[in-house]
Design brief:
CATH class of the largest domain in chain B: Alpha Beta
Number of domains of chain A: 1
Strand content of chain A: 5-15%
Structural class of chain B: alpha/beta
CATH superfamily of the largest domain in chain B: Thiamin diphosphate (ThDP)-binding fold, Pyr/PP domains
Number of strands of chain B: 14
Strand order of the largest sheet of chain A: 1-2-3-7-6
Number of helices of chain B: 12
Helix content of chain B: 25-40%
Bound molecules: thiamine diphosphate, magnesium ion
Shape of chain A: globular
Oligomer: heterotetramer
Number of domains of chain B: 2
Order of helices and strands of chain B: EHEHEHEHHEHEHEEEEHEEHEHEHH
Number of helices of chain A: 11
CATH architecture of the largest domain in chain B: 3-Layer(aba) Sandwich
Radius of gyration of chain B: 19 Å
Number of strands of chain A: 7
CATH topology of chain A: Rossmann fold
CATH class of chain A: Alpha Beta
Chain lengths: 326, 321, 326, 321
């Protein structure tokens, strides 16, 4: 569009990715509920602004580590959404050939080093990735996503200390959606919270409203610049809310319905859309971006439903070279 | 006798033990919400948050705190959520709990139960499907229990709670919703006594945990009369029953969900060979998983799965050898 | 002595225990070096003021958890020193029947729940002990000793959060002797240090000069009173110095000799003795306390050298009831 | 050929590999100070603190960082100090490193080495003496290596470093100071090839790690000519060599320091029975530790120890059966 600023174009791209994440997960949850997709999915619906706000500041060479709730991180980092949907359906052509499923989505081609089924496990991995990047003099950084529940696991402390000690190029992103599975995380967490803990270990922390994608973007931009400048690890504490249950089947009976309803009112996508509209982007354009996102993901789901299953023999490949299963 | 699920049988047994002994309490993630399989459902209402304790995601400390609490006279139930997460608490289980009585010369005991639901369930993939029972049988100090029916879930949980030894109780995730008859005030079931699930002379078939119904069905389907043993506890295990049977049948098949290589089936085979002597043996086979992680996709997972058909085939092979 | 205050008597008792710990460890190190005692010992020589300063505020019913460097904690808690020396020599009648050795000294009769060969492992155990005490409504607290190296292990964070969350009656005591084995701990620790980390998790922290036994005593007295009063866990950060090497055979080549020499000048025993002398306790009495301590421990060592070995069959007992080794 | 200690052989091999490949680096506690057995001595002077990294006491992160570093193209050596501390990093080893290639469908590989010196040494008692090799052979994805001589320490470390698979290398603590001849620029030794340490028809004796010199001496002392195999790597292991030998001797003795119950000896026995068939077997025995923790006191520790005399006795039993 003539006269549209780079900044606006960038924001539109952010909106597009957020809409794509939401559409992806809505299809994924539906596919899981209907039984088309096996296993469980952990949707990040409502949290899209964190993934996109952070990843819009990353280059392809940068790496991310993710969690059990990792679809958003992957899509925001540029992972192939069709391959992801195939993976969730356990089909040939899936990101991991059907071996991983939702909890192990990875796309190494774009630096997405993997979702993880173990809370907090990505933290040490991110530290080591950054150490290797330093050793090989690669021009890249690592963003490490984890939930508020992970700050109660030992590797959190170890990793913060480690990254600060070696001044590693890592952006730690705590997606604080208030819950750890069925438990309100504040009921099992003492002290001043994730940021205070990170700072105690020597990692400077910044708090941000995770429901405001532009705020996340601005904070991440600043922190990423510092990290690229050699300032060592930085910590971003993003408050947000998990709209859905812990998994696609959890009805989240452990919290008042109004609380979730209120969070839906604060929708990060609508919020960004409103900014764009105020900047002069036509509502129709926004609607069309969202519609395209839905169409894309429905297409992927449709493709996934009819895609071939992997060859059963694949169950025994990619284990190891020496001593591989016969 | 009432028909109920495995989860309900375990839940009732725990409630009965908690009523009987005020020193019994449980700690783990989401317990106040009933646990992820409903095996703690409603307990907080009866016993309060001092005895049904929801914890942070801190497996090392869930396990280690269990030990400290046992050393101060209570009988904690340490809930690991799923067995794989025990990997985050192995030092506490193996170097602390299992050894505390021995290394302190008998001054203290870790009288506690570690519950760790294990195995394949709903395409949970590599990090949520492991069966590491063989590991724990290798660790001096631990009792290892692996029930395969609702009745045993109840009876063995009671024994585990009353045991002065630390007991690792591996519930098969895939059987939480399986139903069976359970006695109304189920008696504790002693460790080391196999359940003789079927009788026959063609072969001795040994199994446990999630493979119990699979083996029972496979044995029925192949129509060959075998001695089928559900070990129920892996350490101690009912070597006497198995050896006696193998002396008669001369044929041994061990079936388990875990990886075959260095699985507990290897120990069963080795002990039986040592006890029976090679002269008395005509055929020996282990049926377990290939040495590969558990994949997500159904056809891949199925390729790793022990099925009644594979059991039937194996029985035919062993009985016919 | 007529006119001697309770306070002075208490301080003399502290001095006696400090002298006993030092004498015990000097004998233990000598026995290890000569080969009379098998295995390795980790002496706490120079750090006696922390163990005694804390434990003088504990009752018999209170529990402690300890570390690989645990002789001082045990003696200060009232453990049987002769049984300990027998244990270090691997003899029958040792605290653990010879099965544990120096790294697993325990004396449950006085609430000493065990030394530990795994750094940081006592922290979760102490938390659980306190939880049981709460459940059984026992009138007791738990003191949990660990080194500065332990603050880089995951269980440190988990345990701090846990104790703060459940407001458990635990006194955490960080004996900060500056080294983790052969590495200066500051070289591998980032951020504001142990106390800041504890506070970040919600455990209030107090710093004290660990080379001043009376300062430790005063601080511990205050913190223990708070804990008994229901204030929840407290953290005591005691700076001190490890005079000897990491083990009895380590010559500590990784640090300047002058640094250790300076620490020896700050001897916590001489410091307390000077206070007592200033309070009018005769130097001869102090000398005699120290001489008695040496005589006691030499006696234990002599006894240990000639004590019978345990029956080899004991190697197979006390493993477990069900499934015990044949 | 130069005579040198096990530690020196390993140190030299590592230095040679680090010179050859700038992507090789090492991380662990006290490495800058040379490691606790001197196996890193002098390396920081040559390679600097970016490649010889002293770490905090953070086993989970030492292991997990090793994985991250491997995924970004370097070849880390993860030093666990002693094998028991791996219990503090089991999730990282078993649920992450071992599975990463598989669960991500081959997108990434954990090409790294985890070193974990293991076993009895200087009366270190229950928490510092464990041999958990069997555990790791049970875990798909891992290569498990257990050298018993200085030459193998060098050659297997080189193979481990060059391997694209994650390799767990268990050095026997008790043999760090043992001496042997080592080639000057030692060649890598392939995995899965046993060393045929002695020849004879009376029995097949299989061992590895710290028991290697013990078994060699025991076999010499009893004067019965046996086939003695030092497996050197446990996964893959040289089943072919062992099975071929047992087909000839009809007698199998497996000797290891680890607890016998569910030790790797059980797997060796089970595989040999499956491969050779019971008809071809006259005697089978495992010689390992009782299912008890390792005690501190010398006479107690000795009661658990495998000695040449016990090996000789076992050979006599097996050969005479
Ligand atoms: C070590 C470990 N313990 C427990 C679990 C089970 N679990 C999966 S997700 C989850 C909650 C995690 O909460 P948080 O870190 O806040 O992430 P969120 O789910 O809110 O995104 C739990 C307890 C696990 N995966 N790993
Ligand atoms: C988990 C673990 N990692 C490593 C070791 C080896 N180790 C024994 S003591 C020690 C240093 C501990 O330092 P600190 O906690 O400061 O205690 P200090 O020795 O100074 O008393 C180390 C690394 C161990 N015992 N446990
Ligand atoms: Mg959360
Ligand atoms: Mg220290």
């Amino acid at each position: 569009m003539p006269g549209r600023s780079n900044e606006t174009a960038r924001r539109i791209a952010m909106l597009r990715d957020m809409a794509r994440i939401r559409a992806f997960e809505q299809e994924a949850v539906a596919a899981m509920r209907s039984g088309e997709a096996p296993g469980v999915v952990h949707p990040s619906i409502g949290q899209e602004g964190v993934a996109v706000g952070v990843c819009s500041n990353l280059k392809r060479a940068d790496r991310i580590t993710s969690t059990h709730r990792g679809h958003g991180h992957a899509i925001a980092k540029g992972a192939d959404a069709r391959a992801m949907m195939l993976e969730l359906h356990g089909r040939a052509g899936g990101s991991c050939g059907g071996k991983g499923g939702s909890m192990h989505i990875a796309d190494f081609a774009v630096g997405m080093l993997g979702a993880n089924g173990v809370v907090g496990a990505g933290i040490p991995i991110a530290c080591g990735a950054a150490q290797a990047i330093r050793l090989t003099k690669e021009d890249a950084i690592v963003a490490c996503f984890f939930g508020d529940g992970a700050v109660n696991r030992g590797p959190f402390l170890e990793g913060m200390n480690w990254a600060a000690l070696y001044r590693l190029p890592v952006l730690f992103v705590c997606e604080d959606n208030g819950f750890a599975a069925f438990t309100r995380n504040s009921a099992v967490t003492a002290g001043g919270g994730p940021a205070v803990r990170a700072e105690a270990c020597g990692v400077p922390a910044t708090a941000v409203n995770g429901e405001d994608a532009l705020a996340v973007d601005a904070a991440a931009s600043e922190l990423v610049a510092r990290i690229r400048g050699g300032a060592g690890p930085q910590f971003l504490h993003a408050k947000c809310y998990r709209w859905e249950g812990h998994t696609g089947t959890d009805v989240a009976a452990y919290r008042p319905a109004e609380e979730a309803a209120a969070a839906r009112e604060r929708d990060c996508i609508r919020r960004l859309a409103a900014v764009l509209e105020a900047e002069g982007v036509p509502g129709a354009e926004i609607a069309s971006i969202e519609a395209q996102a839905v169409a894309e993901m429905q297409g992927h789901r449709g493709a996934a439903m009819v895609a071939p299953w992997p060859d059963p023999g694949a169950a025994f490949s990619d284990v190891q070279d020496a001593g591989a299963p016969a | 006798m009432t028909r109920m699920t495995f989860a309900e049988a375990a839940r009732r047994a725990l409630a009965e033990e908690m009523r009987r002994d005020p020193l019994v309490w449980a700690l783990g993630e989401d317990l106040v919400q009933g646990g992820i399989f409903g095996q703690y459902k409603g307990l907080v209402e009866e016993f309060g948050t001092e005895r049904i304790v929801s914890t942070p995601i801190s497996e090392s400390t869930i396990m280690g705190a269990g030990l400290g609490a046992a050393l101060c006279g209570t009988r904690p139930i340490v809930e690991m959520r799923i067995a794989d997460f025990t990997l985050c608490a192995m030092d506490e289980l193996v170097s602390q709990i299992a050894k505390v009585r021995y290394m302190f010369g008998g001054q203290g005991r870790a009288s506690l139960v570690v519950r760790m639901p294990q195995g394949m369930w709903r395409n949970s993939a590599a990090q949520h499907s492991q069966c590491l029972e063989a590991w724990l049988t290798h660790i001096p100090g631990l009792v290892v229990v692996a029930p395969g029916t609702p009745a045993d879930a109840a009876g063995l949980l009671k024994s585990a709670i009353r045991s002065d030894d630390p007991v690792v109780l591996m519930e098969p995730k895939n059987l939480w919703t399986a139903e069976g008859e359970v006695a109304d005030d189920a008696a504790p079931i002693p460790f080391g006594v196999a359940r003789h699930a079927a009788s026959g002379d063609a072969a001795t078939v040994v199994t446990w945990s999630a493979c119990v119904p699979v083996v029972e069905q496979g044995a029925r389907e192949c129509g060959i009369a075998c001695d089928v043993f559900d070990l129920r506890s892996l350490w101690p295990w009912d070597e006497a029953a198995v050896v006696t049977s193998v002396r008669r049948t001369g044929r041994l098949l061990v079936v388990h969900e875990a990886v075959t290589v260095s699985g507990f089936g290897a120990e069963v085979v080795a002990r039986v060979v040592e006890a029976v002597g090679t002269g008395g043996l005509r055929a020996v086979e282990r049926l377990g998983a290939a040495r590969a992680p558990v994949p997500f996709s159904p056809p891949l997972e199925n390729a790793m799965r022990i099925t009644p058909a594979r059991v039937a085939e194996a029985i035919r092979r062993v009985a016919g050898a």
